[in-house]
Amino acid sequence: QVQLVESGGGLVQPGGSLRLSCAASGSIFSIYAMGWYRQAPGKQRELVAIIGSGGTTNYADSVKGRFTISRDNAKNTVYLEMSSLSREDSAVYYCCAQVRTSYSDDNTRGYWGQGTQVTVSS
After folding, report:
1. CA atoms within 13 A on the CB side of 91
2. CB atoms within 10 A of CB 114
3. What φ, ψ does residue 74 adopt, rounded to 5°?
C-alpha cells in the first residue's frame, strides 16, 4: 500500500503565490512519474503538471510560466509552486504517483492523494 498526502493548500489573494507538497509513503520500491491534477466545481479533472523520474516536466497550457513542479526523490515528495494565481486556479488539487512497490515485480500503478483545496479570492 502507498499513501500520498498533500499539504499547503489554503486561501490566497489573486496574484499571490502558494506552494503545495505531496509526500508518498508506504510500500515504495521506486517512484516513476509524479504529478498534480485539479478539479474545480462543475469542471472536469485536469492535468496540471507532471514530472518524470529524471526531472522532465510537462504542464497544462493554462499554467505554463506560472507553475513549477519539482520533486525530492530522497523524500518521495513532489511540489507545485504556484504564482500569479487567479480565481480560475481555484480547485481541489490532487497529487499522483506512478509507483513500483516490489523488487520482484516491476509493474507499477498509480496512487492518488486525497486532495488539498486552493482558493484564490480577494
Report:
1. 21
2. 11
3. -65, -25
Bridging pattern class, strands 10-12 and 116-120: parallel
Question: Tell me: the pLDDT tens digits for 73-118?
Answer: 999 999 999 999 999 999 999 999 999 999 999 999 999 999 999 9
> Rounded to 5 degrees, what are φ and ψ at 33?
-75, 150
What's at 23, amino acid-wise? A
Residue with cell 526531472: 55
Q: How far apart are CA 63 and CA 47, in angstroms?
A: 10
| Upper half-sphere CA count for residue 100 (Cβ side, 13 Å) | 12
The DSSP line for 76-92 is TEEEEEE-S--GGG-EE
- pLDDT tens-digit readout, 6-63: 999 999 999 999 999 999 999 999 999 999 999 999 999 999 999 999 999 999 999 9
Amino acid at 57: T
